[in-house]
Amino acid sequence: MFKRIIGLILVLLLIIANSQTAIVEFGGGEYSGEGGEWLGESGEGNEMLPPPSEEADNAEYRVFINGAYHEYGVPPEVTEDGVLLLPLYEILEADGASVSIEGTAVSIVTRKNKSIRLDLADGTCGGDVYRLVEKNDRLLVESSFFELELAGGLTFIKDIYTKTIIVTSDKATYGDVTPYSLGLGRLIDYEGTPYEHEVLYDIAGAMVVPQADKPVPIVVFLHGNHAFGKADETRYDLGFAYLMRALADKGYACFSLNIAMHYSFEDGEPEHTRQDRILAEHLTRLSKANEGEDAGFPFDLTGRLDLHNITYVGHSQGGGSGADLSAQIDEMGFKVNGIIEISPSIMNEPLPCPNVPVAIFLGLQDDDVIAFDGSPTFDALTRSAIGRTADTYMVMVRGANHAAFDEALIPQDRAYMKLPFIDPARQREFYTKFVIDFVDAANNGGSLGGLPNGADGDFYGFEALTAFYSGSGKDVLMAGKSAAPIGIGAEVIEIVGVDAPIPIMFDPDYAIEAGVKLAGNDDMPLYKITWTSDGAKVTIPIDETMKDFSASRALVIEAMQVSGESTSTRDIPVAVTLTDNEGQSASAAYEHSAALAWNQTTYVGEYYTRNIQSFLSCLTIPMERFEGGGLNMNSINEITLDFTGSDSGSVILRYIQQAPAETADAVPPRGN
After folding, report:
1. Could you tell me where the beta strands, DSSP code E, fall in 448-518?
2. Alpha-carbon distance 555 to 392, whole Å?
């Protein structure tokens, strides 16, 4: 909570400070600042949209039916006396009915082959009368009409916070994304005894299970802490339905859990363990259903689930709890095979993370977790002292925001920074590809080397930084553990963290003097390389135990340009050279790499955007790039980083690793 308060204060200062117009660069286009206009879309990389307007706060209601959100051209309405009106034809057809007009009546044959007639003149059906409203050449009818047994037995929840009418039907079956309710759960306190007053909640969520002849792996989703009214009537869990459908098509069962009660104050102040117990209740019910018991799910799950292959996916605070809750799943006798943390918000000190692949996804246009909590999480997981052998991956997508991952969130970020952003639908599209690739990898050996991790920063067609650490790789260089690189025309010093002051309401030249603030651990050892004339190089002697590169698929270099210093230039070219014990060499040259690209603070008006923080990322070089020249890969003596072509520069380096994994340069990502 303290982080959020500080973040809110920072936001208010930023908004107050913005009073002038300045041109900024972003994603290849330009935006003219507060009160200005979008001056041009990028011709490459991110397909950026102008900043959203305040109209996003006044979004009309949607309908969630058949596992998807729909906008039917005429939104649902709620009358002054509280009657819910829904699109007549669209709801009927979505429920499998056939509809025809016969004079002044609607003739309906339901999916249960029942025939009914609704008189359009007076709203009568049988002996009852239903309210009808015509709008935009469409008909709306009160929701109680659909609740008739003859009309399909549909039920409805009006969710005012997600601006959604949630429609459930008894026709759901395998392959459908289906909301479910398993009845009331009862929360207990730390000692295992009831609260002083009973705290009941709806054990609810959404599920999809593909038709299969054997148990299928599972993906469990947990949403974050967002605005809500009653915990049982606010369904942010449904916002991952788009992703659940895509995963089901690939053969995975998905369960998205409604954990709003964990964040709710309606039964007293929530405490940390509520989400643990809600998750445990769902998993216990799943286990019983898998064993053949009737646990209340919409259809039979007997023998359909592989509870020893569970991928955990969490968003926001649900992502920040990934390590804790995945450890809990293992403790319950099940097995987590991978963890994805989407824009994680870390509210508590995380427990030790299970030794499974972890991917962290950050949107650099995040309007919520502006401290980018996922970055220090990646740093902590990749410190070799903790003994992880699983792969760790992080992606930072320019223009991606916090909210668009969860389709239930309205509006899709407020974008108080007034900068262009990626269309939410496109953001979900590339995120879907990424999650499918990760889940595939987690269920097929655990190597994340096949995820987009190339030198050009391309992430399914969008501009991004990526960082990759192979748990089974060899650390050729690790700051704080290895001898420092040897500078040739460059100064190399060991530093601890990069924590320059964050400029807010200062002259833009201040950023040049202040340096940068690293979005990571302040106590992390780093090497800083600085030069002021062309031809700078550093060499890294290879330890005897690391000389054999023959089994490596890639060389991974985690680095960052220190763009805030006067020595830096727009982009720093680098040539990476391997030299063997006999003096033979081979090089891979990069005129541009995402890892060493300019990452300067963006300046708008009189304030700086959230891009005040910079990120270490990886230049991943397939070993094929070094072939030629008779190089003996069994005995590499040194690595040279050659910055020739840049008159001056400043670079931070954390590690160089031999990674025995696939890379995007060698093998195209499976999601493309």
Report:
1. 458-459, 462-469, 474-478, 486-488, 491-496, 517-518
2. 15
How far is residue 554's CA from residue 576's CA, in Å, rounded to a whole number? 12
SS3 state at 289: helix
> Whose structure tokens read 């909301």?
179
Burial 644-664 (b: 16+ CB within 10 A, else e): ebbebbbbbbbbbbbbbbbbb
DSSP 590-654: ES--GGGB--PPPEETTEE-GGGEE--EEEEEEGGGG--TT--TT-EEEEEEE-TT-SSEEEEEE
CA nearest to 392, candidates 365, 424, 360, 353: 360
Residue 660 has which token pair?
């025995």
CB 437 within 8 A of CB 305: no
pLDDT of 299 higher than 80? yes
Q: 118-127: string of b/e by CB count within 10 Å (b at 16+)?
A: bebeebebee
Q: How far is CA 87 from CA 157, 234, 500, in A?
A: 15, 22, 56
List strands edge to edge, sheet with 84-87.
Answer: 77-78, 84-87, 138-142, 132-135
CA atoms within 13 A on the CB side of 348: 14
Q: What is the distance between the alpha carbons of residues 129 and 555, in angstroms, rounded to a whole number?
A: 72
The encoded tokens of residue 476 equal 């050729």
Q: Which residue has the higher pLDDT, 507 or 228?
A: 228
Mean pLDDT of 422-436: 91
**Which parts of 291-363 fold into alpha helices (H)?**
317-320, 322-331
Q: Which amino acid is at 237?
A: D
For residues 301 and 286, is the Cβ–Cβ distance under 8 A? yes
The residue assigned the tokens 């993370």 is: 353
Cβ pair 394, 360 in contact under 8 A: yes
pLDDT band at 347 (very low <50, low <70, confident <90, very high): low
Mean pLDDT, the chain, rounded, equals 79
Kindly state the helix (H) or strand (E) to which residue 334 belongs, with its residue range: none
d(CA 661, CA 439) in angstroms, rounded, equals: 16
The continuous run of DSSP H or E covering 79 comes out as none
For the entire predicted model, the pTM comes to: 0.86
d(CA 337, CA 603) in angstroms, rounded, equals 42
Q: pLDDT band for position 252 (50/70/90)?
A: very high
Tell me which residue of 185, 198, 353 sits closest to 282, measured CA to CA.
185
Cα(253)–Cα(245) distance, rounded to whole angstroms?
9
Residue 6 C-alpha from the chain's centroid: 23
* Cα separation, 479 vs 477, whole angstroms: 7
Q: How many CB atoms lie within 10 A of CB 415?
A: 20
Quick one: the chain helix, strand, coil %, rounded to 5? 20, 35, 45
Cis peptide before 411 (omega within 30 of 0): yes
What is the token pair recorded at 632?
Answer: 């003996």
Query: Which residues neighbour 212 within 8 Å (Cβ) at sequence distance 6 or greater?
Result: 251, 304
Give the per-residue pLDDT at 81.
86
How far, in Å, CA of 63 to CA of 57, rounded? 17
Cα–Cα distance, 367 to 369 (Å, whole number) = 6
